[in-house]
Write the structure tokens for this entry.
Amino acid sequence: MNAATNFLPGLPHLPTITTSRLHLRWLTPADVPALFTIFSDPAVMRYWSRPPMTSEAEAAALQVQIAEYFAARSLFQWGLARRSDDVVIGTGTLYSLSNTNKHAGIGYAVGSAHWRQGYGSEAVAALVEFAFTELALHRLEADVDPRNTASRRCLERIGFQQEGHQRERYYLYEEWQDAILYGLLQSEYQPTALRLS
């Protein structure tokens, strides 16, 4: 039995999480072009563990995969849609969900046209709150390339603590890349306002 099957029982798709500027919402086939824009950008993918997409078919496959992973309750991936126009500008993810150990990994991507506007921090804060309040998790984890200072600062502002340095964790762009491991416990978390629908 999947260790995450008890999360969000009975729901056909992810609930929408509302922040001041974003709806973290279910991704549909209509969002495939936006997903391709995000995940085909070498700047966005520079510190990910996979290369940029090269075709919209890959984005379509990702959207289907996201739905399948949710059905198995093994990964929850939201689209980060601007409240002003409902355009998806990124994604936020809870992965490696464990009901037994009450932990998950957390990750996010924001299209490079929307960097340095605080969208990443806003989305990650909402995901942290959802994970600790709605899913009753005990711990969240993230790993970040040491050179990705923007993501490191985002996690640290929310309260994540550096817990380790994993040497040559990923091989991408013809080089070995290190990863910094971050962790945040529910007892360290400072709540914020969160609206679900």
